[in-house]
Amino acid sequence: MNLLAGKLNLLAHLYSQNSVELTGKEIEALRQMRVGHTHAEAGDALGISVSALKLRLSSAQKKLGCRNVTATVVRAVEEDLI
């Protein structure tokens, strides 16, 4: 029983070390995409240019290891980041 508890603690520790931290701006951008906004609509809602929005989304995408924005939003939801 102690062996199982030890392995669970190790897994929990490793998982917590691998958690991704997104910036507030990346989270805001992903939330806009989550509700179905276009890049232009999301940029307007956040008061930023489409280029700035895409930069934030790209940064989040790299941090989460995703291939596109849709996958990034899905992963962020699954990991309770947004």
UniProtKB/TrEMBL annotation:
Biological process (GO), any one? regulation of DNA-templated transcription
Give the organism the record lists. Answer: Paracoccus litorisediminis
Citing just one GO molecular function, the answer is: DNA binding
Q: Which residues form the HTH luxR-type domain?
A: 15-80
Cross-referenced SUPFAM superfamilies: C-terminal effector domain of the bipartite response regulators
What InterPro entries is this protein classified in? Answer: Sig_transdc_resp-reg_C-effctor, Tscrpt_reg_LuxR_C, WH-like_DNA-bd_sf
Signal peptide as annotated in the record: none
From the Swiss-Prot or TrEMBL record, give the protein name.
HTH luxR-type domain-containing protein
